[in-house]
Amino acid sequence: RKEYVDLYVNYMFNKSVKKPFEDFMQGFLRGCPARNWKMFLPEELQVLLQGHTTFDWHLLEKNVVYGGYNKLDQTIRNFWTVFHKLPEEKKKMFLAFLTGSDQITGYGPERFGFRIVDPQVENPDELSPRASTCQLILFLPR
């Protein structure tokens, strides 16, 4: 029985996926040659591929640039008061809304920032917040 289980597990995890994995690896290495990855330590490579998993949300607030607002405007103060009261999972959901990912990739949290912009509409109560994920802009009506 042990031999059967060992052979079955080997088939499911190795042999059955061998060809698709080789195809994936060939395509991946065409775009990202292995020699380029060797300059990273394993921890650095993990952060590069997965992003940072822990965040300093106050540092994020510090890195925000405002358009049509300043950091003392009531709308901005309300936004950050509510934001900092959110549980960690909801803050990551906001990050996903803003950037398209719940991780901070690239330079790291100390350099990550976004813009909060006043869309300057006639009736802000009729507009919901929206985000431009490519430009890292949160359009936040007053």
Automatic annotation (TrEMBL):
InterPro entries: E3A/B/C-like, HECT_dom, Hect_E3_ubiquitin_ligase. It catalyses: S-ubiquitinyl-[E2 ubiquitin-conjugating enzyme]-L-cysteine + [acceptor protein]-L-lysine = [E2 ubiquitin-conjugating enzyme]-L-cysteine + N(6)-ubiquitinyl-[acceptor protein]-L-lysine. GO terms for biological process: protein polyubiquitination. Residues 1-142 form the HECT domain. The active site is at residue 134. Its EC number is 2.3.2.26. It holds the Pfam family HECT. This is HECT-type E3 ubiquitin transferase. It is an enzyme of class 2 (transferase). Keywords: Ligase, Transferase, Ubl conjugation pathway. The lineage of its organism: Eukaryota, Metazoa, Chordata, Craniata, Vertebrata. The keyword Ligase applies.
